[in-house]
Amino acid sequence: MGQRAEPPMLEPPLPPDLRVALVHDWLTGMRGGEKVLAELCALFPAAEIYTLLHVPGSVDSSIESHRIHTSFVQRLPGAARRYRWALPLFPAAVESFDLRGYGLVLSSSHCVAKAARPGPGSLAVCYCHTPMRYIWENFDAYFGHEPAPLRWAIGAVAAWLRGWDRRTARRVRLWLANSHAVRDRIVRCYGVGERDISVIHPPVDTDVFAAAAADPPPGLASRSYDLVVSALVPYKRIDLAIVAARRTGRHLVVVGQGPQRERLETLAAKTAGTGRVSFAGPVATESLPAYYAHCRAFLFPGLEDFGITPLEATACGRPVLAYRAGGALDTVVTGLNGLFFAEQSAGALAAALEDPRLDGPWDAEAMAAHARRFRRECFRRAVAGRLAEAWRRHREGAEHV
Which residues span the domain enclosing 108? Predict the structure, then answer.
């Protein structure tokens, strides 16, 4: 594998002595948001990280090599496993960070990180994965299975949080959205004008996934299975893929872990049909390319903010079958690297699984070229350029950066 090219120097550059604080919601695993944070750490190797909660060893050394400051959430009993239940405390936790003395406060936010209070004279920038999905658009997906009294109590807190979330959005001077769908959500939730938001897609390590293994994973035959790679949480809608696979007689392999695993395994056992569902659990990054490269199709049934996994499948030359909404509209092109289904239902996904176009042929070279448009160097270059421009305008006192 060739050495990655570094992004070129940009003019005007950020001051070399600029103190940078990176604010991230929590560090409990290496998912899409943490991959973005790792790239921000590479751009700012001297930056310090502020986060509500850090589980040591849960993220890459590229992040853990930085000085990490945590909030009082870190000290709550059982916080490492049940931190989401501390949601009402998150505003106080993120506002407790003392960020005086940092010239640039750069948040990587899908919950409350964007609300960190910048110090006097500092520039606050948010790379937004989404406005807080728990309170704006996915409340039922996360809390719909809870008992009614508990759901009511959480709903009352969510209403208060929406007001706080909207008010604190005014602290951000520059918004970077990870997709056009998230840009539209920022406009809708926070009242930010479209012209004040730049869309910069998250980075994809295309080199790793382009070098796919020649042999399929143990126990699997090439093109004999469809694939899901995902955290097992409600809004990912893995349930739709399971029901569709059972109905159509397909073999579905689910890679990932999360609190929904037991429920999804029960669903797979109880759903009528001849299809088979295998839960592979968490798979090491170096083993993932083999799963992608030898699947028949990669399934993406959720309404996602962006979604890095479809591009990982694309880099491996395999087609994506995606729900036609959200971030998938930025990454999946019909006929080039995949197909869409229009209704977010098991029936619509099952019908799409029967589409003979999924069996190809697919142009692997064209797919790899499409995936390279989202490579890490493109992300770093775009972020560095936008930050340099924003810093110049900030120092000039411009109203909009």
Answer: 20-203+375-396
